[in-house]
Design a protein that fits this description.
This protein is mostly helical. The chain has helices spanning about 1-20, 25-35, 40-65, 70-90, 100-120, 135-150, 155-165, 170-195, 205-225, 230-250, 260-305, 310-314. The N and C termini lie far apart (about 65 Å).
Length: about 325
């Protein structure tokens, strides 16, 4: 009973972070399951089965708060479902330890870019409101879906920074669209795991516990992302990506850093992250009206079916 309660609390906390920042539900939940001895495929299967419910509630909540771009959801979600199914069937028979450090390095670079761009430059203005093309979203979806299924999490860490880095979609809609499209990934990955694993490998009590915690947190997270300033949200997401992937690299076979080295890196990252958040909050207060105007113009142009540049030239 204590284990189920702990899993429910993990599901609640993980979804609160995931729904607010667009990542970390799968990574957090899978890490705990692996720590108590679950094999990688069964851990990922458990998390993805729970995510069918949590992503459905999260997507509905983000839609109610106006955080979803449905064109982005379809363009990235459908290819992502194919990638997730392939990743699930692949993981059912093969480990991915070799690929993990490579992906962590790629994500770390993206995280650094997002962190620096939002902290020091604020809301990207040049491309905001311009459409995200299928030729960008489709390959991104396939890769993110495959990584998500094989790693027990990765849809948000891959998809969110890539879209944020494009500067074409404001942070709250990036997070809302990624969270909503994750429902398709969860369904496809779950089908792949059920295909590749026996039912005995999946503990449905654990699935239910994670689901209950996540469902409680989903609407709260959707409300939070609606009210957190884009500049602050971008700095927060970037810091989370840097911390998560630095941890993965330092613990990987590539580096296998001793505890003293790892904790020194973590301390530096936490201090830099805190300083960046304070700086971002102060800068947001100084430029709040300008950011609101940019977002309003981008949303109005998107609703009219034209880019902000086209709108300005009329």
């Amino acid at each position: 009973m204590q284990k189920l309660l702990l899993l429910a609390l993990v599901g609640l906390g993980a979804q609160l972070v995931d729904g607010s920042l667009g990542m970390a539900y799968g990574v957090t939940s899978t890490t705990l399951l692996l720590a108590i001895g679950t094999n990688p495929a069964a851990a990922s299967a458990t998390v993805h089965l729970a995510e069918i419910g949590t992503t459905l509630v999260s997507g509905f909540s983000h839609w109610k708060f106006g955080n979803v771009d449905w064109k982005v959801v379809l363009k990235i979600g459908v290819p992502g479902a194919f990638g997730a199914f392939a990743g699930a069937t692949f993981l059912s028979s093969l480990s991915t330890e070799t690929a993990a450090p490579i992906m962590a390095l790629i994500l770390l670079v993206l995280g650094l870019y997002v962190f620096v761009r939002f902290t020091f430059q604020g809301l990207p203005k040049g491309n905001l409101g311009k459409p995200l093309r299928k030729r960008f979203l489709a390959p991104l979806g396939v890769v993110a879906g495959f990584v998500d299924a094989t790693g027990g999490g990765g849809w948000g860490p891959v998809g969110t920074p890539a879209i944020l880095a494009s500067g074409r979609l404001e942070p709250r809609k990036t997070i809302g669209s990624i969270d909503t499209s994750e429902f398709l990934i969860a369904v496809a990955a779950s089908l792949g795991f059920i295909w590749g694993l026996s039912d005995e490998s999946i503990d449905y009590g654990w699935v239910l516990a994670l689901l209950i915690g996540g469902v409680i947190a989903a609407p709260i997270a959707a409300w939070l992302v609606r009210h957190i300033p884009p500049r602050v949200l971008g700095a927060a997401v970037g810091g989370l990506i840097i911390l998560t992937n630095t941890r993965s690299l330092l613990r990987s076979d590539w580096i296998d850093a001793p505890d003293a080295v790892r904790y020194t890196f973590y301390a530096v990252i936490y201090l830099a992250w805190a300083a960046a958040l304070v700086y971002s909050i102060n800068q947001y207060r100084s430029h709040a009206e300008e950011d609101r105007r940019i977002i309003a113009e981008a949303e109005a142009a998107a609703a009219a079916g034209e880019s902000p540049d086209e709108k300005a030239s009329v």
